[in-house]
Amino acid sequence: MKTNLLRQFLLLCCLVVLQLVSSRVWAQTASMSLDHLKAIKAIKIGNLEKDTYFKSGDFILDRYEERPAYVFNYSDGIPRKIYLYKVFTAADTKELGLLAIYENGKTKETKPFVIPGASADRKAWDAYIDDLKYVGEKEPGLMSALGFVLSREMALLMGGGTKEEGGEKKKEEYNFCFPADAVVTLADRQTKAIQAVKAGDEVMAYDAQTRQLVPARVREVTIHEKSNLAIAGVWITPVQEVSASLSLTQPVLLEATANHPVQTATGAKKLGDLRSGDVLYRFDGATRSVAAWKVTAAQSNVRTVDKVYNLVTERGSYLVNDVVVLDK
Fold first, then answer.
1. DSSP-assigned letter for residue 186
2. Does the pLDDT value for residue 117 go beyond 60?
3. Interatomic CA distance for residues 64 and 69, integer angstroms
4. Closest of 97, 100, 126, 130 to residue 31, by C-alpha
5. pTM, whole model, 2 decimals?
6. What domains are there in the chain, each with its CATH number?
7. For residue range 212-249, what is the model confidence (pLDDT) as tens digits?
8. By C-alpha distance, which of 75, 73, 54 is closest to 63?
9. Higher-scoring residue by pLDDT: 122, 2
10. 258 phi and psi, to 5 degrees?
């Protein structure tokens, strides 16, 4: 009897806190439908520790406030973790809600909870409540862990503890794109400004497993318009020349919004996180393959523009200024 009352109390706490959080964080958002909720629940995250920002289908997932997982060590010896992601629509970067991933440290089993925003459809809220009741009650420790995380986030919001003004990250941070004059390498090795690329065009892409260049069809071209969008830049030179202390090749500038992901020797990184010494890959016309180029300088704001572009390809990558970049 006491156990059932405790579970009902925890469920009530989760619902009250979520209503407060959603009213403060998601006042200006897209409305989450039941179909949205089901699609977000079905997203598979390959590495919860490393995959903090990525695009999956029609959605963008971004680790909430860039925080690591909440970790709980219970008396039963089983560690439990809660990972939080903000969820945005990929088309217009409107915020939909939160995705909370619970992980059992012993079984490594994960359970997703999609938390709708304040303007969500009632059916989406009903589905979330059902998950709390029917999934949460079957996993010891889940409800208390989730309840603590949501309560703490609410306390931080009430106290102004988030890093961005008004408790939210600025929407433009989620527009990962290139300026209109960014040069895209086509499959036939010709080039075209990204603003001229159309859905159906074939561009050059990169297969990270084989480390080979491959053709890929453009599925979609996304465009975002906003005054004074900051464009970051990195200057790169061939690794061989850098290691030999030579400077025979003119440095190449790669420009994009600071959060656009690029392929590096250690995996995907946001352009704004690149530092001197990071290794990128660039098409070498002489060998018709990719070569390692090293970052020699970085600048957070090279210029500002009012319109930016991104390509969505079959391979998840393409080349800008012959440098391998990712589309998610």
1. B
2. yes
3. 10
4. 97
5. 0.53
6. 2-171 (no CATH), 175-326 (2.170.16.10)
7. 899 999 998 988 888 888 999 999 999 876 444 445 67
8. 54
9. 122
10. -60, -25
* 179 close to 165: Cβ distance less than 8 angstroms: no
Bridge partner residues of 110 (DSSP): 103
Asked if 132 and 120 touch (Cβ cutoff 8 Å), the reply is: no
Q: Residue 166: left if φ>0, alpha if ψ -120 to 50, beta else—which one?
A: left
Q: Which residue has the tokens 């306390």?
A: 155
In what helix (H) or strand (E) does residue 289 lie, and over which residues does it extend?
strand 289-313
Residue 53 reports pLDDT greater than 60 = yes
Least confident of 102-106, 164-168, 250-254, 303-307: 164-168
Instruction: End-to-end CA distance of the chain: give it in Å, rounded.
Output: 49
Amino acid making up residue 28 = Q
Token pair for 300: 């957070």
Task: Kindly list the distances between the CA atom of residue 47 and the CA atoms of 51, 108, 110, 151, 169, in Å, as whole numbers in the listed order.
Answer: 5, 12, 12, 26, 24
Q: Are strands 267-270 and 261-264 parallel, antiparallel or unpaired?
A: antiparallel
Please name the residue that has the structure tokens 């009530």.
12
How crowded is the C-beta side of 249, counted as CA atoms within 13 Å? 16
- Helices marked H in 136-195: 142-158
Q: Which amino acid is at 86?
A: K
The encoded tokens of residue 105 equal 């440290």
**Looking at the predicted structure, is the pLDDT value of residue 66 above 50?**
yes
Among positive and negative, which fits the CA dihedral 326, 261, 110, 131? negative
